[in-house]
Amino acid sequence: MNRTQICIRNLHILARPPLEDCPALHLLEAADQLERVAEILDERDSQDDRWGLQDHSLPEWMTILMEEVGELAAATLTHRFGKQNHPNSDWREEAVQVAAVALAMLELFHTSPDVD
Questions:
Q1: Count of domains in the chain?
Q2: Residues 58 and 92 in one domain
Q3: The domain containing residue 90 runs over which residues?
Q4: Which 3 state secondary structure label does DSSP give 39?
Q5: Are 108 and 55 in contact (CB under 8 A)?
Q6: How does 99-114 read in b/e, with b if 16+ C-beta sit within 10 Å?
Q7: Whole-prediction pTM value?
Q8: Average pLDDT estimate for 5-25
Q9: In terms of domains, do 58 and 98 share one?
Q10: Mean pLDDT throughout 90-95?
């Protein structure tokens, strides 16, 4: 079982009431939320495959995160002002990357609380 499957199973069990107690709307919201979490975890796996262990300082992490936020802003503006087919207009993909970098930061800080 990979990290995404484990997380989805655990979120499904821990973060929501039993399925039989959920109205249909909440079931759809939970399923959609789990799909977004799976996208973020898949991106984290891709980052690990591409870059290996990232052991950065806090200022370095903030620089990486802000670079990703800048790409999200650019993609959002490109999308908003009528260039939806432009290669830089995929704001959803950029948002997933922002979340994945933030998660990578949290993972490091959780395992190494003395990061400077």
A1: 2
A2: yes
A3: 54-116
A4: helix
A5: yes
A6: bbbbbbbeebeeeeee
A7: 0.72
A8: 52
A9: yes
A10: 91
